[in-house]
Specification:
By secondary structure, the protein is mainly alpha-helical. The longest helix has 33 residues, at 186-218. It has one domain. Helices cover 80% and strands 0% of the residues.
């Protein structure tokens, strides 16, 4: 329970915690942010770490502190790319073994087949779109590795996705962070960002429920 409360406090007061870290660690904050984004993107066991809101708040704090947002963007793009690629190669190396576990509920052969079909239908935009969807962005590179997506193709979409994700959120925070309304209501803005980023998952969940209801009604 204490861990849950601590994580909840981190989410709702991300601006306070990040500002304190900047004051406490100085330039080491770049290494801390790199580690957070790398883990959130690159390790399937840490999809709960802040992503979208962290990038926006970081841009805001950099603007208020008068720090160079370009170095921040470079650091976070590098972290996102490293995470994506580590995740891909973990999936490509370890993934096939997961499917040999008879009692594996999270990863199974049918899930792999569906993923391969999805990539065949939608192509590389899967990698780009997933960048803006929490939790999903953590698992997509791993599943791409399991499905043995052609690596140069994966890498090109990974680079484009990382650029769009980091640049849009960091510079949005940097340019809009000093607006009085946003500056005085940053917690509310964080919740809005989280809500917007979760919307695609909610829409997909509702669509799946509607499809299941139609199939049930026909039978």
């Amino acid at each position: 329970m204490d861990i849950v409360l601590a994580f909840w406090d981190l989410l709702i007061r991300l601006d306070v915690h990040l500002a304190a870290l900047v004051q406490q660690y100085g330039t080491w904050i770049y290494a801390i942010l790199f580690l957070i984004v790398f883990c959130e993107t690159g390790l399937v066991v840490t999809p709960f770490l802040p992503g979208d809101s962290l990038l926006f708040v970081a841009g805001t704090i950099w603007a208020v502190s008068g720090m160079d947002a370009h170095w921040l963007a470079v650091t976070l793009i590098t972290a996102a790319l490293c995470g994506d690629n580590v995740n891909y190669w973990i999936g490509r190396t370890l993934g096939p073994r997961v499917f040999r576990w008879e009692d594996s509920r999270l990863f199974n052969r049918k899930a792999l087949d569906r993923t391969e079909a999805f990539y065949a239908k939608h192509g590389g935009k899967t990698i780009i779109i997933a960048r803006f969807v929490p939790i999903v962005r953590t698992f997509v590179p791993f599943v791409a590795g399991i499905g043995r997506m052609y690596y140069p193709r994966f890498l090109s979409y990974s680079v484009l996705g990382a650029l769009l994700w980091v640049l849009s959120l960091v510079y949005a925070g940097y340019f809009f962070g000093n607006i009085p309304f946003i500056k005085n209501n940053l917690t509310l803005v964080i919740f809005c960002i989280i809500g917007l980023s979760l919307m695609p998952m909610a829409v997909e969940y509702l669509r799946a429920r509607l499809r299941a209801a139609k199939v049930s009604a026909r039978s």
